[in-house]
Amino acid sequence: MSFSSLVSDIAYRNADRDDTRSGLSRAGSYAERDDTRSQLSRARSYASTTATSVSISGDISSQLHGGYSHPLSRAWQAERQLTKSMLIYPLFISDQPDEETLIPSLPNQYRRGLNKVVPYLTPLVAKGLKSVILFGVPLAEGVKDALGSNADDPKGPVIKAIRLLRRSFPELFIVADVCLCEYTSHGHCGILRDDGSLNNALSVDRISDVAMAYAAAGAHCVAPSDMNDGRIRAIKLKLIEAGIAHQVVLMSYSAKFSGCLYGPFRDAAGSCPSFGDRRCYQLPPGGRGLARRAIVRDINEGADIILVKPASQYLDIISDAKEIGKDLPVAAYQVSGEFAMIHAAAKAGVFELKTMAEEATQGILRAGASIVITYFTPEFLDWLSN
């Protein structure tokens, strides 16, 4: 029934009811007629308002507010709900056993020695921490060299940390970042030629050896971040040869872009290059096509998870990774610069820290990631219910 028909129908039924009634006083009849006119007016008003609303909004399917009017129904609209199991917390492991040093450019983050790591993680694990990613920070005098020898030293910080965490937290999923920049005297992510350029073949051989050492020590996942061509295939082959490919996740930093967002991390890890930069092996910020090619390459070489880094400025790349690797998990690293910017803006009163942290992370999930490496992990363990 149309709205105009509804108004006519109400008017007819009310008028008919008045005419057939008898025994009523004139005053009563006037009162009921007034009431009828009032009902008719309300019906016309309702019909007019509703008709106007529909005529403005168009088709009925355009009426969306009801679908997210309640907090729970708003949550249902998200393709991915952020949960604690999606989070990986970066840890900087110092070779000084009792160190616990605040990183000034990275709010609330510390370098910690092995004697400090377990006491720090114990309450976080109790709150639901599921995974950490380890970055070694060698500080001892003379420990760095051109080959990054300390990276896979059994007495080095990462291998010792892997073994310690496996004993202390059997359910904790341990990711080991695989790179040489923290361990080389020159600060680059591989082995260099005499002219200072990266020797890709030697770098891949060295990186894959380091990955194997971490896997043998008990890492559940190895994550090469060096961006040398062919290192995923080399690592996968060595895992197969060692008979442990079936129990080690290979997470590739497939789309790692060069840029200015890594400063606080380099302060923490002591990994600034002593000369030049990393633009010849990390992707250029505008290189979307290069990123897509790198993702395809790493999937074909045996990557189990694809990682995009940084996250918030590269949401299109996260979306591309999910499109290309439909059957693979996609991870995103909300890097130190992103984290520091959010903190700085919140401190300046631009927005509330929790609100922005949640909004930024939801953007990463919406783009296609289902794993997020973030320094906000301790806060999310308090903010999230599951």
CATH class: Alpha Beta
- Tally the structural domains: 1
Percent range for β-strand residues: 5-15%
Tertiary shape: globular
Structural class based on helices, strands and sheet pairing: alpha/beta
**Average pLDDT score:** 87
Going by CATH, the homologous superfamily would be Aldolase class I
Give start-end ranges of low-pLDDT stretches.
Answer: none
Helical content band: 40-55%
Number of helices: 13
Could you say what the CATH architecture is? Answer: Alpha-Beta Barrel
Q: How many E strands?
A: 10
Order of helices and strands: HHHEEEHEHEHEHEHHEHEHHEH
Q: What would the keywords be for this entry?
A:
386 residues; alpha/beta; eight-stranded parallel beta barrel; 13 helices; TIM Barrel
Quick structural summary:
Helix 1 (3-20) runs antiparallel to helix 2 (26-57), helix 6 crosses helix 7 (231-241) and helix 9 packs parallel to helix 10 (315-324). With 386 residues, this protein is of the alpha/beta class.
What does this structure look like?
With 386 residues, the chain is of the alpha/beta class. It has one domain: Aldolase class I (TIM Barrel). Helix content is 46%, strand content 14%. It is built from 13 helices and ten strands. The chain has an eight-stranded parallel beta barrel with strand order 1-4-5-6-7-8-9-10, surrounded by seven helices. A hairpin with a 7-residue loop joins strand 2 and strand 3. The longest helix has 32 residues, at 26-57. The relative contact order is 0.11. The mean pLDDT is 87.
